[in-house]
Amino acid sequence: MSVRLRELKYKIKALDLQEKNAGLAEEDLYYQAATSVTVLSSANLNLLAATALSLISYSMDLIHKFLNIVAPPTTFFSLCLFLPPYWTFKFFLSIINSIFSENVAGKVVHITGASSGIGEQLAYEYAKRGARLALSARRETALREVADRSREYGSPDVIIMRADVSKVEDCSRLVDETINHFGRLDHLVNNAAIGLATLFEEADDITNLRPIMETNFWGSVYTTRFALPHLKKSKGKIVAMSSADSWMPAPRRNVYSASKAALVSFYETLRVEVGSEVGVTIVTPGYIESELTKGKFITKEGKMQVDQDLRDVEVSAMPVGSVSGCAEAIVNSTLRGDGYLTVPWWFRMTYVIKVLCPELVEWTFRMMYMSGSKTTAARETPSKKILDATGVKDLFYPSSIQSPDLKTE
Predict the structure, then answer these.
(1) In what order do the strands lie in the sheet with 340-341?
(2) Any stretches that span the bilayer, and where are they (predicted)?
(3) How far is CA 31 from the centre of its chain?
(4) I need a surface site. Which of 54, 102, 382, 384 has the fewest CB within 10 A?
């Protein structure tokens, strides 16, 4: 509103007021007129703003209602058209990548959690291909044994370092020591992890479960952050060891499953951020012979122990895969540049079932893995009874996980 127009309105209002207040001075009438017009204009503006916001909100509601109706069928028919050529393209691309897979002879690979299980076998697989190795874990004695065998398998240079990846300073040190010794880093394998087998309500002090997230998630994040600049220089690769538990709602693995799901989300986002500079392979193993399937869990008191009866409850009558075959598949997939790998492959179907029938999956897990009463021991669950009744334990469980003995420190 221009100044002259505003003054004119004030004068008109003053004349109106003059008739009602003949005794007031002219300047007082003019002041009353100005105040009245200002208040009126402010009220009008507030009303206009509220009306505009209401219209915008109503419009957005209409847009979302429209998308709720249109998006599902559009997505379905688009996928019907898109998936066949997409899968065909991926099939031929996988063949090409298999033929021209990366040669890691002489390259540097750092593996965390390399003292046992999948980490140990990954060291042997990389060693067979002539890679130089940096191995880290908390158990130095076991690491030395793995390093000696890796040299026998063909690795030209192996160093070890005792480290706890839940500590950020250890993660920084293990990357620095690798660079100081080799001068480069080509592959980072984030394998270190600890398991859990306790109901959430049974954890009286929830902070006792903090090491699971600190090791499984933050240990990988810390190491990746320190290694990333070196991996960019070498156009290297990251292997993120998640788990099929990242999508399966298995009882007693609550925080463990959350840590593995967080890894998937983190590395998918990182892959978008770094683009083609660094390859990221996300691995989601099913049941593979390791210390986890041997029954090594962190308890509700925060202590590590081996409980094979509880392991039987968790694994039940499911076949446990070979760790050597798993490691070979992981290395092959990484060298091909795959984005995802599930070992064994058929376990990926559990993800499909989870997406299509989530309620059915949750009901099945509750029926099979919960005893139905808080006073009943976990060892009385149907999953344990089925394993004992069928007698398939010796058939489905490798001999390496039949014994509760663990590697020494």
Answers:
(1) 158-162, 132-137, 108-112, 187-190, 237-241, 279-283, 340-341
(2) 66-87
(3) 67
(4) 54
Partners of 321 in beta bridges: 288
Burial class (CB in 10 A: 0-12, 13-18, 19+), 131: buried
What is the residue whose two structure tokens read 């376990």? 347
For 8, the token pair is 């004119």
Best CA proximity match to 291, nearest among 401, 386, 369: 401
Catalytic choice (10, 124, 222, 256): 256
pLDDT surpasses 70 at 5? no
Whole-number Å distance between alpha carbons of 257 and 177: 31
Say what the pLDDT of residue 172 is: 97
* Residue 44 pLDDT exceeds 80: no
Q: Which two tokens stand for residue 55?
A: 């219209």
SS3 272: helix
Using CB atoms within 10 Å of the CB of residue 89, give its burial: 0 to 12 exposed, 13 to 18 middle, 19+ buried.
exposed
| CA–CA distances in Å: residue 320 to residues 289, 340, 371, 392 | 6, 20, 23, 11
Angle separating helix axes 26-99 and 323-336, nearest 10 degrees: 110
* pTM for this prediction: 0.85
363 alpha carbon, distance to own chain's centre: 24
